[in-house]
Amino acid sequence: MSRKTLNSSKGTKGKICGRLAVLPSMPLDILLEIFGHLRPIDLLQLSRANKALNKIMMSNSGVSLWKAARRNIPAFPETPGDMSDAEWVHLIFETNCHGPGCKKKGIRKIDWALRIRGCERCWKENVVWSGRFAQQFPELELEVMQLLPYSSTGGWAYRYLSNNQFYWRPAILALSKVLDEYTKNIQLRKPGAEAAVNAFRKVQAARAETAVKYASVCKAWESDAADNRRKTLQILSDDRIHEVSARFMNLGWSSEHVEELKRHNLVRQSKELTERVWVNIRPQLEKELQKRRYNRRRTDICILFEDYLVKNWGDGLRNLFWGIIDMIDIASLKDIVKTDGTHDLSPNELDQCRDLLPAWADEWLEWARKQILAKIPSTVEEPKETPGNSRVELATSTLTCCFGHGPQYWPEIVAHKCFYNLKFPQVVYDPGLSAIIQSVVHAVGLSPDVATPFQLDAHDVRLKCASTESCVTMGGMSWRDAVEHCSTRHDGKASPSWCLDRGVP
Ligand SMILES: [Zn+2]
Ligand SMILES: [Zn+2]
Ligand SMILES: [Zn+2]
What residue stretches are annotated with the F-box domain (predicted)? Predict the structure, then answer.
């Protein structure tokens, strides 16, 4: 790393300078006392803040300061002999890419053998696979490889190559430059030149070997440190969840309600819950708790209402859940649902709802009747025997859903989502469907002027289609199947004709 990199954080320099100006004049033991609690990265930043401090930190007397800072991080790996403390700390704490000229930050992975961080692009450009060394550096002898540390992982571009060696191009170039100097001296026949290059090679080879060995020590430390950090964060997060839960339970919420908050991103954080944070997050969490409470209260009323409808109007109105949920927003029960507090529906409130249900159901069904009646064109003659509103209950008054959901019989229609959704009323009267139903009602043996789906169900007659030759075998149909069959299979192309299917009990 160049000196320029070490002095790169200019932004904070001015501010810190004033306050730190006095530090360098202090004796080393006092500095040790003051800096004793700092982490290595703090020391690195201090060294950039002030020229005099930088001088101390890079000098021999700075060694004890770095040592003290390293001790503040458990098992922090010692600075390798061929690197300065500042370079080592820069590698471990700062995420800059070490590729030539690259300004990328946030590179998470350290290559401990090459002692660099490299972005994907710089890796691709600068990593040299041992198998291509000769090809890429034809002017260098292969022995040069033994003087350089190597990584055993080549990154994404070389992911299929295992047990190989990867070298860092800038390191190769730097070494080759030094070797050139030595060679020049030998060519100039300088005294001791040969011995000097041999000594240099020996030292380099030893360093390379040490670097590769030390890499595994550092990797193990890195992985332990990451584990410990994960554990610490988990503990912090658990504590915060626990604290938030306890506070809401003190405010009257039950443990089940609070349980639902545990995944909330304001709760599940690895940060201490200070008073200030609590004041900030409380309103949003309370809103969430109230929203869930509102949904539960609404659901409880829906279940109550469904039971009532099924009891009074038959099983066709079961599973209306979602339909009723929407209805509650326009009904008088809203006030009960929205009552302030932290509790779910109390037995008292449930009784109140039960008292309100009959009137509410009447109101709802009355609304539904009006909607249906408005859809039946005035040209359709009113049956003499069943005039007025109850006319909508006739099988022949059945509407059909334009979204392909087929005929919607009374009373199930009130629960059909395309019907009660006032924004998209897509259920219409279809004279063709009405004619088919009329034919089926006749076949069953009832009068279309009075027959309701309920009566037709009660008759439980099986029909056979006789509309076309090919359909004669279609037997065993309920009246509803018959309507469905005729409207989908014949689609108005053949006039409906039925006979009773006596083959089926
Ligand atoms: Zn890069
Ligand atoms: Zn529909
Ligand atoms: Zn048919």
Answer: 20-69
The Å distance, Cα 103 to ligand 1 centre, comes to 7
Name the pLDDT band for 369 (thresholds 50, 70, 90).
Answer: confident
Q: How far apart are CA 368 and CA 413, in angstroms?
A: 9
Q: State in Å: Cα 450 to ligand 3 middle.
A: 25
Average pLDDT estimate for 109-116: 95
pLDDT (0 to 100) of residue 84: 93
The pLDDT-based confidence of 10 (bands split at 50, 70, 90) is: very low
Burial class (CB in 10 A: 0-12, 13-18, 19+), 347: exposed
Q: Ligand 3 centre and the CA of 286: distance in Å?
A: 60
Please write down the HEC assignment for all residues of 110-132.
CECCCCECCCHHHHHHHEEEHHH
Domain ranges of the chain: 1-94, 114-242, 376-505
More confident residue, 258 or 376: 258
The percentage of residues in the chain with a pLDDT greater than 70, rounded to a whole number, is 87
Residue 228: count other Cβ atoms within 10 Å of its Cβ.
12
Q: Considering the chain, what percentage of its residues have pLDDT values greater than 90?
A: 51
Lowest mean pLDDT: which of 31-45, 179-193, 237-251, 373-387? 373-387
Give CA angle at 32 (26, 37), nearest 5°.
130
Q: Which residues partner with 128 through β-bridges?
A: 167
- The CA distance from 192 to 206, in Å, is 21
As beta bridge partners, residue 151 has: 166
Distance 401 CA to ligand 3 centre (A): 22
- How far does residue 47's CA lie from ligand 1's centre (Å)? 25
Token pair 């998209």 is found at 424
Half-sphere exposure of residue 155: CA atoms within 13 angstroms, side-chain side: 23
> 492 falls in which pLDDT band (50, 70, 90)?
low
For residue 406, list its beta bridge partners. 401
Span between the terminal Cα atoms of the chain, in Å = 93
Residue 18 pLDDT: 58
Ligand 1 center to residue 126 CA distance, Å?
10
- Yes or no: say if 338 and 294 are a contact pair by the CB < 8 Å rule: yes
Pick from 231, 233, 261: nearest CA to 246: 261
The pLDDT, as a whole number, for residue 376 is 85
